[in-house]
Amino acid sequence: MHDADRDGEGDGNIDTDADAETNADGDVDAAGVLGETGFDPETSVLTRRQAEVLALRERGVRQSTIAEHLGTSRANVSSVESSARRNVEKARETVAFAEALTAPVQVVVEEGSDLYDVPKLVYDACDEAGVKVGHTAPDLMKTVADAAGDAVRGREVRSSLLVGVTTEGNLRIRRSAE
């Protein structure tokens, strides 16, 4: 990433015809969007530039328009956006890991298990912990299968999973490290 992409130079306003929040001049106000959403560069995994590019892209502003405003290339804006999206995904993964780790209910589903056995395992563990899970058995199986990806094929659990249930009853499914 270039040094110019790390600082907050520029006024944050970009002209666009896209459906986006605009200021009185008809410009997209990147700084205003970041302020409204509570962006804090001191606590974020994103740089200010990454946050600006991502905020504008999510509002439909083209990379070429952003590049023109920032005085850089569209390829550089693409790189900044890609890095921002990777950082967001890593942050989501970290939160999911932390929630699964601290969930009051943790059920290990062993490799080779039948997916149809998972709801009973989860419901029994939730009953023991006094946690209410808000999923029907079919919904729970679908949620586990969807989150597990290729770790579940048909009814077979092909890789060990950790099913965490938060105090709010939300499921956090983690594939065990191999």
From TrEMBL:
* DNA binding protein Tfx C-terminal domain: residues covered: 91-173
Domain of life from the UniProt record: Archaea
Q: Which UniProt keywords apply?
A: DNA-binding
The record's InterPro entries line, in alphabetical order, gives: Tfx_C, Tfx_DNA-bd_arc, Tfx_DNA-bd_sf_arc
User: Quick one: where's region Disordered?
Assistant: 1-44
The Gene Ontology terms for molecular function here are:
DNA binding
Which intervals carry biased composition (Acidic residues)? 10-28
**Is DNA-binding a UniProt keyword of this protein?**
yes
Full protein name: Tfx family DNA-binding protein
Task: Write down the species.
Answer: Halogeometricum salsisoli
**UniProt lineage:** Archaea, Methanobacteriati, Methanobacteriota, Stenosarchaea group, Halobacteria
